[in-house]
Write a structure and sequence with these properties.
transmembrane, transferase, two-stranded antiparallel ribbon, Lipid A biosynthesis acyltransferase, seven-stranded mixed β-sheet, globular, 10 helices, LipA_acyltrans, alpha/beta, 291 residues
């Protein structure tokens, strides 16, 4: 069944991906009307999340954020499809790294990097980072259930030469390359929700006590990798900037979970400034501690 779905969907996705962005954004607007006003896709999840983390805002303010989020989410869907065939020239115009020179410090000191990021802005266009660095680029992902769609996702994310590695294999891959002296930069979406009973630490995210994914910090300490935060900001529709924010160079010297806290502090600051660009449709607070 999944293979049949892929056979039917792939030609449509490919045809969409070769369309100009202005056409895709017209389709995105139509999808927004359908998803928000007619189907109500995850509308309750979004509004519950916003009420949970922004109790000080009025209902009208939260509704405005929800509407803006759904518009952004629909844009992300079509931007992800566009990533199948987007040219390097176009994506460099649309996803601009503001301070690539920051990486010179790590090249000169032979430091491998773990790049922590959240589901904020556009995380799917980060593959272009591979074209801007000397280190071998990796990105961590969770494999899909469908082999066909999983292969498509990997192919898309490796469009510009990066290496996509599953979350279950990344430790072994990086350890092997560390032993060989190969310097790497690994992009990890670190605001994921750990599985119930499979976490070591709880802390607050947007003021709510939840389990924390600490794998990035643990890996940094194990291999002595530097840790940076990738601050992605939406400038306007279809245009983003990405800024490297150094967090730590000597992870072993930090108390357990402090690096994780530093990451969430950076992410929270962005969310509070422009909340509409975070992934509110994700049930990030489902394992929160109840009073």
């Amino acid at each position: 069944m999944q293979r049949l779905l892929y056979i039917l969907a792939y030609p449509i996705l490919w045809l969409l991906s070769i369309m100009p962005m202005r056409i895709l954004y017209i389709k995105s607007t139509a999808l927004y009307v359908l998803a928000y006003y007619i189907i109500g896709y995850r509308k309750k999840v979004v509004k519950d999340n916003l009420a949970l983390v922004f109790p000080e805002k009025t209902q009208q303010e939260r509704d405005r954020i929800a509407q803006q989020f759904f518009k952004h989410l629909c844009d992300i869907i079509f931007e992800t499809i566009k990533a199948f065939t987007i040219s390097e020239k176009e994506i460099r115009k649309r996803f601009v790294v503001t301070n690539a020179e920051v990486l010179d410090h790590y090249y000169q000191n032979d430091r491998s990097i773990l790049l922590m990021a959240g589901h904020y802005g556009n995380w799917e266009w980060s593959g272009i980072l591979n074209k801007l660095m000397q280190h071998q680029a990796h990105a961590v992902y969770k494999p899909l259930g469908s082999k066909q769609f999983d292969a498509l996702v990997k192919k898309t994310r490796e469009h510009f030469g990066g290496i996509i590695v599953s979350n279950k294999k990344i430790v072994a891959v990086l350890f092997r390359k560390w032993k060989k002296g190969i310097k790497t930069l690994t992009y990890i979406l670190s605001d994921q929700t750990p599985k119930k009973g499979a976490f070591k630490h709880r802390d607050t995210f947007m003021g709510i006590d939840v389990p924390m994914f600490t794998g990035t910090e643990e890996l940094a300490k194990k291999l002595d990798f530097s840790v940076l935060y990738l601050k992605v900001e939406k400038v306007k529709r279809g245009y983003y900037t990405a800024t490297f924010v150094p967090l730590v160079d000597n992870p072993k010297e930090y108390p357990d979970f402090q690096i994780t806290r530093m990451f969430f502090d950076a992410l929270e600051a962005q969310i509070r400034e422009k909340p509409e660009y975070y992934l509110w449709s994700h049930k990030r607070w489902k394992l929160r501690k109840m009073d």
